[in-house]
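Why show two proteins at once? Because comparison is the fastest way to build intuition. When a single record is shown, students tend to memorize it. When two are placed side by side, the eye starts asking what differs. So, the first record is below.
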Amino acid sequence: MDMGVLLQNSTDFILLGLITHPLFPELIFAVVFSIFVVAITANVVMILLIHVDSRLHTPMYFLLSQLSIMDTVYICVTVPKMLQDLLSKEKTISFTGCAIQIFLYVTLIGGEFFLLGLMAYDRYVAVCNPLRYPLLMNRRICLFMVVGSWFGGSLDGFMLTPVTMSFPYCGSREINHFFCEIPAVLKLSCVDTSLYETLMYSCCVLMLLIPISIIAVSYTRILITVHQMNSAEGRRKAFATCSSHIMVVSIFYGAAFYTNVLPHSYHTPEKDKVVSAFYTILTPMLNPLIYSLRNKDVTAALRKVLWRCTSCQRIGTRHVSG
């Protein structure tokens, strides 16, 4: 970046928010804060349960713990700033803060793309090759999957963030969004960014195609295997094993499809903000709830931990009384 562009971009941006002029900002604050607390609590509890309960020390739950870590960091990238802006007259974000927000957001959403695709492969091995599951999903392979997901997401972040922030922003500093999302930031540039947007669009489509291909192939093989099963109980267990992941994938990739694949003619600032709010605020809350409420192992582990805590509290109370 040359010195002229750096000086032009040295001033702060202004985030207009999810709703530009909300009538009841305190009400929106209360709703978003409640979702934020539930999301953080649910994901942290999921991570702790998987770490504490030995029955959850399996490849599937190891990958799920990484998804919860990504969701926890993901919601912390955008929501705290959004909550601050709802109660503050100064809705500014520095140039550096905007760049950091873009990098973390792109890295985490890219990491989740790859991780959800690899989780589909895990389900394929569990259903179609159960006897070889310990070999095909050993600890080294699981670590490779996780590192690969984080690396793939960060690679996207390192490519897009410097280029996005290198454009001169010499006009309005008002970003019509509640965080620094790349398309909203690029609208403020005083040069033509159409070529970069086309390349970025192609990159995002390619990035989506890789995990979607893994998911499509994995679940096609799973459906064929389930169809060939003679046991109704076996089919029920197979569907139970995959149903939570299918729900999470449908929610996450549905929003990603709108954002990254649909042409610009389908986009408006209001629609973009609603969709962004869905997958940056609601999705991190829904993911752990879907996996916990629909998973007997997780609910059993939660009951076990709660029973232990209750027992320790009773013993402590009796000891104090004695």
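Second record. Ask yourself what differs from the first in the token line.
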Amino acid sequence: MMALSVSSVVKSLYFSGNHSRNHGPNHNHSLKHNKQHSFSVSASLNPSPYIPKSKPPQQQQLYQPFRPPPSPLPSQFATLDTAGRIEVLANRLGTWHEYAPLISSLIQDGFTPPSIEELTGISGVEQNRLVVAAQVRESLQQSNTDPDVLSAFDTSGAEILYEIRLLSASQRSAAARYIVDNKFDGKGAQNLARAMKDFPGRRGEKGWESFDYTLPGDCLSFMYYRQSREHKNPSDQRTSALEQALKVAVTEKAKNTVLEELKGEGEGNEEKGAEVGRGVLVPVVRLKYGEVAEATSVIVLPVCKAEKGEKEVMEAPFECRSEGEFGVVRAEKAWGRWVVLPRWEPVATVGRGGVVVSFVDARILPWKVNKYYKEEPILVVADRENTKVVADDGFYLAKVDGHDDLMVQRGSALKENGVKESLGMVVLVVRPPKDDIDDQLSDEDWN
């Protein structure tokens, strides 16, 4: 028996008689004329990664990650054999959403993304984008989305539809319409999807109730409105973000809220997370996964553990600044624990002396929590340049007699105990991210 190399067998099998790569006049020949060849391969040859592997015996089955079921193959491709499917993918025969399901069918047959890339030239990243985008498009069809909206994605819509994969079926339909009407590209679609996904988890933040969750434009407006608070007031960046928010807002209530902020009427009404006293509000925000990476400006602060007491807070670096063209962060002394936060308005006002204290249980906060609040670890941001206990309704980081750990105390309570100096005034409380409101990957993101 003549021994052949496995790579030659595969190439002969899939591309025998196929001149489609040579874009000549006979390029569009019928697939049915492909000749099928049989080969004898020596068992001594090393197996190739490009040939689908046979299933191992039942007792040797290993865990395999979840793969979503492939979309139904279009009728024109339903009868194609493996070589035919590979030819369609290699030459992009048809629209993207028609040939995308062929990738899933090859995966189901045992091919891997690298082997498909080798045979078709479609990278693993692009394979994933095509498969997921096709499934999103199929869900839009099932939701009775306007055919004119669907047809707008026929030419190069895979990148755009991929970005709205994390939305629910009803949200996808509304987002698709908004994307088409506003001629969004992939980046615009990504921002819109994040704004719509993120909106419910922002309940309780300033202005949230003024925006309509069912309208993509209002969700996008709230995202810009919230981002404006990462910048100093006044500043060009803050004004620009508010102008964007006003431009995309749909409801009159949302527009008026943004206009009030632009006019300065909303100044001083800090983002309300928990009411801590008459006339004084301490913002309580929940950090989102990826929020730091998306922030236009960030701040780096040293972190201390509450159980370590006041000594660690006193020893933490008092100043941290960026230097040079690359913004390299330099602290005045070495420190083991740091945190990076978006430059929200409360922390933007903190100059030298900013510090973060981590508490393992949010129940140390001396106010009545609302129904959305749960027992969880928190970070308390304090300003060490404001240590004097002045405001009765203010909150301060202090050590209380009889307790070794640090506590957050109301100014009036500290005054009653004769305490005039604290370790710093509390300016912000940060809650950890939550999986159930985050933009986690869905089952469709199989790559």
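One difference worth noting in the second protein: The chain has 16 helices and twelve strands.
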